[in-house]
Design a protein that fits this description.
The complex is a heterodimer.
Chain A: H1 15-43, H2 47-74, H3 76-85, H4 92-105
Helix pairs in contact in A: 1-2, 2-3, 3-4
Chain B: H1 13-30, H2 32-36, E1 38-40, E2 49-57, E3 69-75, E4 77-86, H3 87-95, H4 103-121, H5 131-134, E5 140-141, H6 150-162, E6 169-173, H7 175-183, H8 192-200, E7 204-206, E8 213-217, E9 223-227, E10 232-238, E11 242-255, E12 261-265
Parallel strand pairs in B: 1-9, 5-12, 6-7
Antiparallel strand pairs in B: 2-3, 4-11, 6-8, 8-12, 9-11, 10-11
Helix pairs in contact in B: 1-4, 6-8
Classes of the chains: A mainly alpha, B alpha/beta.
Chain lengths: ~130, ~270
Amino acid sequence: MGFDQYHEPPDELPPATRTFARLCASLTEEAEAIGWYEQRLAVETDPEALAVMRDAQGEEFKHFSMDLEFLLRRTPAWREIAEGVLFQVGDIVEHAEEAEAEALEGGGSGPEGAYEDGSLGIGSLKGATR
Amino acid sequence: MNHLLRSLAPISDSGWKLLDDEAGERLTPALAARKLVDFSGPHGWEHSATNLGRTAPLVAGPCDGVTGLQRRVLPLVEVRAEFEVSLAELRDADRGAVDPDLEQLDKAAHQIAVAENVSVFHGWHGAIIGIEEASPHEHMHLGEVTDTYPRPVAGAVERLLHNGISGPYALALGGEQYQRVVETAEHGGYPLLEHLRKILEGPIVWAPGVKGAIVLSMRGGDFLFESGQDLALGYQGHDGEVVSLYLEESFSFRVATPEAAVVLDP
């Protein structure tokens, strides 16, 4: 059992960043599981086994979506870019470039503020000692 | 547009970014309570009360054969610090000036951080029971001689341990006390800051507004800060010279374990 989700010494990371890293690792695992089930479903011929694995893959869709929503809620710039890309019809790359330019180059502030509630997004500072 | 009415202000997008960034930079170092207590939220401007899970008796039921109880809640408080910014300064910043005068914003940020710290650590009469008010422990004396600081801090840690309160422990130091600790190198040797950290096994934070110091457990679950609207800049009005703005937040604070902190008087 390791701590591979941390790229920096865990003791130096604030708790919020450690939580963020855990959810990123979880997101990766759910995406891998979805891919594995997709491959198994592609080769399986037993209808009962297919039904079980389709149900299992559905669980992974749910887990992946929950992880993603958590991460987007904690990362306004990521959320803003995702809103410009996800569930849009048309050219994915074009939407992505536009969303990135709007979210990052526009500064992410303005009258509406950088955060959804108009706040400064300070939140918890537990783990920040200075 | 939400209740902050920011879109009504004669401030450009880059002007708002300048003000938001400045406020964040000024607030973050001074918000000591958020560095040490559990934080929940933000739950939004509409969030008005914290659920206590407790009830109060009612004299009578609404009709025969029926009894009733009334739920008890802890109302959130709103704090606001108003300030003005010169429109000319904002226009200059739009032109690329790198030294806009935001002194009033800086002062308001410090004031509202102090208000949050005081409310949490000492309390706000009639609104919030702070850590000092809740703690059942007799106060210890920190004094003015920094060489002796480790003794009361170690004493406070021992008292917490004696009451079954595990660590790590944190030390919130008032402005004067923090400065003394940072400046002091004991007899030209081992810095006091490091000595105290060894005793606490936790952080030491600058807590403007705190009188003296407070040692508290960082194990979690003992001190609960609930945020409604997190700190935000809002618009109040303007004339031809200045724009009137404010910093605002809403929150409640509860002490779940009064024994988990010891106050050190200055």
